[in-house]
Amino acid sequence: MIELYHWEPNAASARVLIALKEKGLQFQSRYLDVLAFEQHAPAYLALNPSGETPVLVRDGEPFNEASYICEYLEEAFPETPLMPKTPLDRWAARAWQKYVDDYLAASVSDLAWAALGSAGLKPPPGSSIDDAVARIPMQERRDAWRGALEDLGEEVLDKARERVRLTVDKIETDLEDRDWLAPGGYSLADIAVYPYMNYLPRIEPELVGKRTAPHTLAWLKRMSERPAVIAAEAMSRTGDAYATAAPGPEHVRWG
Ligand SMILES: N[C@@H](CCC(=O)N[C@@H](CS)C(=O)NCC(=O)O)C(=O)O
After folding, report:
1. Quick one: which of 29, 98, 106, 148 has the most CB atoms within 10 Å?
2. Which pTM was predicted?
3. Can you tell me whether residue 68 is helix, strand or coil?
4. Tens of pLDDT along 163-185?
């Protein structure tokens, strides 16, 4: 049996939801409201001590980290492949996933949090937001929440915008002569990048708009029309997964 602990179908949770749907796998959805701090309940911390979503549990074995959950699904359920065929093209798909993990996820999360995040924040029953944050066991996650709650500041947001600008250049180049990010067809690269880039036309229309990012916009549309993406997005409980955001992972470089 497969269970997926996830939040709204955006960012890291969407990566695994889309991969599961693409592969046509049955799974039990375990929805956690991260803006109500449900990911810091002891039972969830036992599955993932960093208190981040998503976590996939298969036959009682928990897996974290969206990139590696997706790679696991690809190896365990190869029938509908989500990786290109040649070693070179597979490298390209993996390089995109690392790029998301190291650079893009933190940058888009900062911009999305600043634009949308705190609106949906709910302290757990009988507790204040400060108390909820103080209970987060991992120092890095406590710091990430405190930084987000204080104010990320224009310098951080400008750096995030610059990283997004570089990402748009990279996508525009990749998509000049093909439909999907890695050569060899639709892959985990597209599934990794989409749930972050899909925030941007709304919150940073100058960076991801018709003039600056025509190929990116056409690719976002292609992605949003895939039955697996439609099915994943239908699992939203808020009604619009890209109108809400949570503090994302820490910056790995360029911080
Ligand atoms: N490196 C992790 C990052 C996951 C992540 O950023 N999760 C966010 C939501 S998109 C989260 O759970 N934030 C809430 C928290 O840390 O308390 C992965 O790729 O799976």
Report:
1. 106
2. 0.97
3. helix
4. 999 999 999 999 999 999 999 99
Q: Please give the structure tokens belonging to residue 177.
A: 């002569």
Q: What's the rounded Cα separation, in Å, for the pair 234 and 250?
A: 28
Residue 141 Cβ < 6 Å to ligand 1: yes
Residue nearest to atom 15 of ligand 1 (CA): 52
Amino acid residing at 130: D
Pocket test for ligand 1, best of 8, 32, 53, 111 (most atoms within 8 A of CB): 53
Contact 44, 38 (CB under 8 A): yes
Average of pLDDT values for 109-122? 91
Separation of 216 CA from ligand 1 center, angstroms? 24
Going by their DSSP bridges, the two strands 28-31 and 2-6 should be labelled as: parallel
Pocket test for ligand 1, best of 13, 38, 52, 193 (most atoms within 8 A of CB): 52
